[in-house]
Amino acid sequence: MNSSPVATLILFSLFFSCNVATTISSQDNIHTMFQLPSSVSKSTPDHQGGGFASGSIDLGGLVVTHVTSFKKIWSTNEGGSGTTFYDPVSIPHGFSSLGSYAHPNNIPLFGHFLVAKDVSNNPVKPSLKSPTDYVLKWSSHSLNRKKKDGEAYVWHPIAPYGYKAIGYVITREFNKPSLDKVSCVHVDFTDDHDHIPMKKPNIIPNADQMTVLFENKNVIDMNGLQVHSSMGGFKMKNERLGKLKANDDLENMPNMTQIQELINKYSPIIYFHPDEEYLPSSVDWFFDSGALIYHSQGEESYPSAIEKNGANLPQFGQDDETYWLDLPVDDLSKDRVKTGNLQKATSYAHVKPVGGGLFTDITIWVFHPFNGPSTAKVLSFTIPLGKVGEHVGDWEHITLRISNINGELNSVYFARHSWGEWIGASGLEFDANNRIVAYSALHSHGLYARSGDVRYGWVGAKIAGMLDKLASSDKVMDTSARTVVVAAEYLGGVVVEPPWLNYTRRWGPHIDYNVEDELGFVVKMLPWYQRIVIGQIIKRLPKELFSEDGPTGPKAKRSWNGDEDLYLVQLRPEAI
Hints:
The protein is mainly β. It has helices at about 255-265, 285-290, 330-340, 515-525, 530-540; strands spanning about 10, 30, 55-60, 60-65, 70-75, 85-90, 100-105, 115-120, 130, 135-140, 155-160, 165, 170, 185, 210-215, 270, 290-295, 300-305, 325, 345-355, 360-370, 375-380, 380-385, 390-405, 410-415, 420-425, 435-440, 445-450, 450-460, 465-470, 475-480, 485, 510, 545-550, 575. The strands form 10 sheets. A 6-stranded mixed beta sheet has the order 26-25-24-21-20-32, with helices on one face. It has a 5-stranded antiparallel beta sheet with strand order 23-22-30-29-35, with helices on one face. The protein has a 4-stranded antiparallel beta sheet with strand order 2-5-6-7, with no helix packed on it. α4 (about 515-525) packs antiparallel against α5 (about 530-540). The two termini are about 40 Å apart. Residues about 1-25, about 40-50, about 195-235 and about 565-575 have low confidence and may be disordered.
């Protein structure tokens, strides 16, 4: 195996994340430091949610619960802020650890170990078994001595046939951990039936020569039991750990009363930029204000008024580009609808299980009738891009991830520009009333956890990028005040989906722009000695920016039936 500096990648997993430093003695047993400003009271259970927030979850022979007491094993300052590794302590009787835990040093310790207990009563095929051996996967010998707390060794548990290791174990001595240190999970509880280990993996040659590349952004984990595509405890590059499979028993999911409580507690306050002209509205207001549905038949297109709740919109099917929505025809009505109606703005909630039923995702969708023009940051210049970025029908969303074990907020996904970012509960901003705060970017409406200017989509050596401007103002939307739950499939027919939700075509027309017409004036505005360089940079901006393309609705998004996307490397934002 190649022993280059990037040959080994360890993803350091958080159950929650924020951005305040903490220092902990290596001998301390520590408890969770951060506490949410408010907690969710438990509702009276019924047949559709009686197990929600009960303190543990039975996955059908394997019970999991949280442990919030930690013992520091080892730490390093390599990789930016550095990372500390922990083991759980005060594990309840009968429960087993599944691996060690890693946490960045610049984040207050607010984690939950997930520990497991075998309740299968099956001596032939128990839910958990001890590993048969360990192999060394990494050591700290190659790290700078001044940046580490002694030495450390990462061990991979060798699972018995039919079982999977969920996490790694870290020690301070070059001695294999005891076999009862952690447990391995039967493959019936993972999605890895086709990856049962047939032989013992080899020890990595020259393990002590490998350098660790630390990555702690956008990684959320429960001690190795993967509940998100980015999870994996801390893991080695090109290795596959066990991943908890989806659980069909959803009695631990919240019922409608509990869903409303969660929305009231955690659904965010959204601040719009003081210069924002294009505010949100309800879908009904958009329809009632003269929005039209077009149907193309050959080269002709025929508009029709949209009936209440979208009753006459085509249902389901793929986007064949023959249907689209648009603003009213007359200019006065068109301009009025573009600006939205903040007073009648409504948020729309989709509730679904994730992580094998360990979590509930509540996705809060917000509709804007119009998306405004984009802005670029080129060197030190802020440049408006004409009509670039404009389109009719803008859908934005925030996802609240709730633990079904204790009913508390785990993390929040802030979506923007077909990508987004997970922020742990302790990294969020809360207002004076303990409500989560989100910021909507000027014109683009992308959602962020912090205010300020953010540049993304770099061109060249970070010479140019698109600009999102975020600031608080008196233009505010309380997403919990007017929330309609439009989908919760696991509840059966309890939630009736509105017709517009099953309209899977475009919410706006497609229009191509002439790049020279839209951006030529920008170059002319610059000093002569910068025109050639800046002009070339602008031409390298993504081609998709130079057309107006109405988006599809919430149900057509990839995340509707799956998990949220993570950062795309080429779009990773950076505050400026």
